[in-house]
């Protein structure tokens, strides 16, 4: 457990972050300044906030868990496939799509499919932005580092996230993410080299895991169905609201593209470190849950003072992820749910207020559900798969296609994918392994395709996006 003065350093860091949020709260005048930082973020801030927010508790603790369970295949299948699949997002999709200040992902859905699809998409996206996996990771870290129960540590840390997000908006989030980016890089990389040498390198690691040789094989550590599900899930970035928010907040489309390409190289390096750490955790603490073993390994091997930097880094990665998604959830509630249900024209001040209320609601919802999951990735994949199974096809189809667009197509695509995922999640097939997301995406596409052949064509309505050539 951490000492009193180490806990004092963590409290000081938390107060500094809250102070940053308060500083930027004085510059919040409207939704553009609150949600997009006046579209003024340079390359460095985009890189910092993307890396820090994308690699939260799921990307760090969750990756260690998966490496301990599935071995090197967690990198060879999950990491490589994920980044190759996201490359078009950086090269072509993201830079060419400029989302206007008054346009969110549900607004885009409305422009192509109508209000009913937009409202359904907004509700699903709000649930997705609760980010259960990050709160689950918080609880695991708190139990090991402080001996505090998951619910208590989750409440404390989520409260800090809410205060930071409510006060500073996107600029507060981006600046704190940049600081936490450096803490995260230091924290994630300090433990692996020392422990890798101690265990005897690849030879020693292979010997330590001789009873589970599949963990050292690039593809044999997980089933084909699990690998296919992870590959499919990796394309969820194309429907992720925080990615589009970052591209919109960049001071130019070219900057957004350069930033994401930079992130790819950093993410691949992080993945190598995390996967090797997971294997070391499996070899060192074979009978302990991997996430708890990870934190135990860190606290028992790093000297006092240094280990607190690790805790700050890993908690910082979780905080930087939650504040990004909570901000997106707040904007969704204010602009896309409340606005559509009431059909009232809200002032900029009211939109900011409703967004802040949405942040609190999303945090409360996440806290009430997150600790029903034992593993970080289980929580992440559950809520992420609901969103992707329902919204991926309608969103990507609207952005990239030029054919007919009907309200029925959007509704069938969302409902078909969502209900398929829910059915196979609740009633899994006993005859053979089937990941619900793998079947939900094709069903969603078929339903979307058929629906767009029926009804009134809405493709001639106002465009949801403005295509900008570099």
Notes on the protein architecture:
The chain has 20 helices and two strands. The protein has 470 residues and is mostly helical. Helix 3 runs parallel beside helix 14 (253-284), helix 8 (132-146) packs across helix 9 (150-189) and helix 19 (407-426) packs antiparallel against helix 20 (436-451). Residues 98-102 and 461-470 have low confidence and may be disordered.
Return the CATH architecture. Up-down Bundle
Judged by helices, strands and strand pairing, the structural class is mainly alpha
The profile of the biggest β sheet is:
2 strands, antiparallel
Distance between the termini: 52 Å
What's the level 1 CATH class?
Answer: Mainly Alpha
| Strand elements, count | 2
CA radius of gyration is: 22 Å
Q: Report the mean per-residue pLDDT as an integer.
A: 80
What's the overall geometry? globular
Order of the strands making up the biggest sheet: 1-2
Question: Can you give the helix content as a percent range?
Answer: over 70%
Number of helices: 20
Transmembrane segments: 6-24, 36-55, 67-85, 117-141, 153-171, 221-238, 259-285, 305-329, 350-370, 376-401, 408-428, 434-451
Keywords: Membrane, Transmembrane, Transmembrane helix, Transport
Pfam families: SSF (PF00474)
Protein name: Sodium:solute symporter family protein
């Amino acid at each position: 457990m951490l000492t009193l003065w180490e806990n004092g350093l963590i409290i000081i860091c938390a107060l500094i972050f809250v102070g940053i949020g308060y500083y930027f709260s004085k510059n919040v005048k409207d939704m553009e300044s609150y949600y997009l930082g006046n579209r003024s973020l340079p390359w460095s801030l985009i890189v910092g906030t993307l890396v820090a927010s994308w690699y939260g508790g799921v990307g760090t603790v969750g990756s260690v868990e998966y490496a301990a369970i599935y071995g090197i295949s967690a990198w060879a299948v999950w990491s490589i496939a994920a980044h190759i699949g996201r490359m078009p997002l950086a090269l072509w999709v993201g830079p060419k799509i400029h989302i206007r200040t008054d346009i969110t992902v549900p607004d885009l859905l409305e422009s192509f499919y109508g209000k009913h699809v937009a409202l359904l998409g907004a509700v699903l996206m709000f649930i997705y932005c609760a980010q259960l996996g990050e709160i689950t990771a918080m609880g695991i870290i708190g139990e090991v580092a402080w001996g505090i129960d998951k619910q208590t540590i989750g409440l404390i840390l989520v409260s800090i996230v809410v205060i930071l997000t409510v006060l500073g908006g996107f600029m507060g989030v981006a600046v704190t993410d940049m600081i936490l980016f450096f803490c995260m890089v230091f924290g994630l990389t300090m433990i692996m080299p020392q422990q890798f040498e101690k265990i005897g390198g690849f030879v020693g690691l292979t010997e330590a895991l001789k009873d589970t040789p599949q963990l050292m094989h690039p593809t044999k550590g997980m089933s084909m169905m699990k690998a296919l599900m992870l590959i499919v899930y990796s394309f969820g970035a194309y429907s992720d609201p925080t990615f589009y928010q970052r591209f919109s907040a960049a001071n130019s489309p070219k900057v957004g593209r350069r930033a994401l390409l930079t992130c790819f190289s950093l993410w691949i390096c992080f993945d190598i470190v995390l996967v090797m750490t997971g294997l070391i955790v499996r070899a060192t603490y074979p009978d302990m849950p991997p996430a708890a073993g990870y934190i135990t390994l860190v606290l028992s091997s790093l000297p006092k003072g240094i280990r607190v930097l690790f805790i700050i880094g890993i908690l910082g990665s979780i905080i930087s992820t939650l504040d990004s998604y909570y901000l997106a959830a707040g904007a969704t509630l204010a602009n896309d749910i409340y606005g559509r249900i009431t059909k009232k024209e809200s002032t900029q001040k009211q939109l900011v207020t409703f967004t802040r209320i949405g942040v609190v609601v999303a945090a409360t919802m996440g806290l009430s559900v997150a600790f029903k999951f034992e593993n970080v990735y289980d929580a992440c994949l559950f809520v992420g798969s609901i969103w992707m199974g329902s919204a991926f096809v309608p969103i990507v189809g609207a952005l990239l296609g030029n054919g007919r667009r009907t309200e029925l197509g959007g509704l069938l695509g969302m409902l078909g994918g969502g209900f398929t995922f829910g059915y196979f999640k609740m009633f899994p097939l006993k005859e053979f392994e089937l990941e619900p997301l793998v079947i939900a995406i094709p069903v969603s596409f078929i339903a979307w395709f058929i629906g767009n052949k029926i009804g009134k064509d809405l493709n001639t309505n106002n465009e949801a996006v403005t295509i900008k050539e570099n």
